């Protein structure tokens, strides 16, 4: 079966995110895009392409009942913006509707950013725990 360019980029992104998880590292989207060979710059087309790939990965991981691998992607600044957190947790809410701890409407609260960051860090911890080598070597 012949691979498409989308297949190649999707596999590269997926592999890079797993590498980050296994090394307990986060990555920003610009560095991720550059690491797989996409052009540098704040190009809205590149961001749209990346978002499509990340959405596919998120849905794939969710369908296999694994933690949200794409949570390893962070903003360049150490303090995530409210808009970034809101989009992340809107997706989280959609995927985990039955047990979500934080709803998108809660972003109107003054302390919502801290709650969102805490939830993101817990999800990142779950991802790292899942993708560590000892976990992968266990038999079901």
The helix-and-strand class reads: mainly alpha
The total beta strand count reads 2
Q: What is the rounded distance between the termini?
A: 30 Å
Binned, the helix content reads 55-70%
What string, H for helix and E for strand, traces the elements in order?
HEHHEHHH
Which blocks of ≥5 consecutive residues have pLDDT under 50?
none
Strand count, sense and barrel status of the largest sheet are: 2 strands, parallel
In terms of quaternary structure, the protein is single chain
Average pLDDT rating:
77
Biggest sheet, strands in spatial order? 1-2
Beta strand %: under 5%
| Count of discrete structural domains | 1
Q: Cα-atom Rg, whole angstroms?
A: 15 Å
What spatial form do the alpha-carbon principal axes imply?
Answer: globular
Helix count equals 6
Outline of the structure:
With 140 residues, this protein is mostly helical. The chain has helices at residues 5-22, 29-35, 44-63, 82-95, 112-131, 133-137; strands at 27-28, 73-74.
